[in-house]
Design a protein that fits this description.
globular; alpha+beta; three-stranded mixed β-sheet; seven-stranded antiparallel β-sheet
Length: 233
């Protein structure tokens, strides 16, 4: 594996689209660019992928906005591939939800830009939650991704008034106070390529004793397991 030569360089190892009928197409040769966006003010990852389809494969599927995207990117370097130098969305596929643009270059060639997000965002838009919750918000996610959180000083029992799960967690965050940072009311709920985070802005700015805490390949196993294994320090 070659060494990194410039910022933003990556190697595309896996790129496949799984249609709603179950057909899987390897599109790695069609990819011209991949963009993944993380935002601490958004609950889910988003991104887009630009393709040049020379065989009308994607037109024949067709793309209707419910396809799975299996994606794996690595940073070029001589060391072994780890979670710190790779982005792997093969176990937890992304979902295509929109065709941003499509330009017919000629009879057999088309340029497309597809937008994608995570399964949790798709699921959250489809369901509503109407029940009481207490403890950590991981139970609302119904996800096997890792969940990192900062403990709160207050412990409420909330009743969701027929809200989307991700919207409800964001609503909870506005009422939480930090147990570690002088009851700071600055909790944010967001997703990165490594998992979900529920933490304060104060903890992000605290650089005195920086530690990264995670458990490799460990899904959310319920409130007690998450409380013991996945904790921001």
């Amino acid at each position: 594996m070659a060494n990194l030569q410039y910022a933003g360089e990556y190697e595309l190892e896996v790129c496949k689209i799984c249609s709603t009928s179950g057909e899987i197409i390897d599109i790695i040769s069609m990819v011209s660019s991949v963009n993944i966006f993380e935002d601490i003010f958004k609950s889910s990852l988003t991104g887009d992928i630009s393709l040049v389809d020379t065989n009308n494969l994607l037109t024949a599927l067709p793309i209707i906005g419910q396809e799975k995207l299996l994606l794996k990117l690595t940073t070029p370097q001589s060391s072994a591939v780890t979670r710190n130098n790779s982005l792997d969305f093969t176990d937890h596929p992304l979902y295509i939800y929109k065709v941003d643009s499509k330009v017919e270059i000629n009879d057999n060639t088309a340029a497309l830009v597809l937008s994608f997000t995570t399964a949790e965002a798709i699921r959250s838009n489809r369901i509503r939650v109407s029940q009481a919750f207490e403890g950590e918000p991981s139970a609302l996610l119904n996800s096997k991704k890792e969940f990192y959180y900062e403990e709160t000083a207050n412990n409420y029992k909330f009743v969701s008034p027929n809200m989307r799960p991700l919207d409800f967690i964001n609503c909870i965050s506005k009422r939480c106070l930090s147990d570690k940072y002088n009851s700071a009311p600055t909790f944010l709920f967001y997703e990165t390529c490594k998992g979900f985070y529920f933490r304060t802005i104060d903890s992000m700015l605290d650089r005195k004793n920086v530690k990264t805490v995670y458990v490799d390949e460990t899904p959310n196993l319920g409130l007690d397991a998450s409380r013991n294994m996945l904790r921001l320090i």
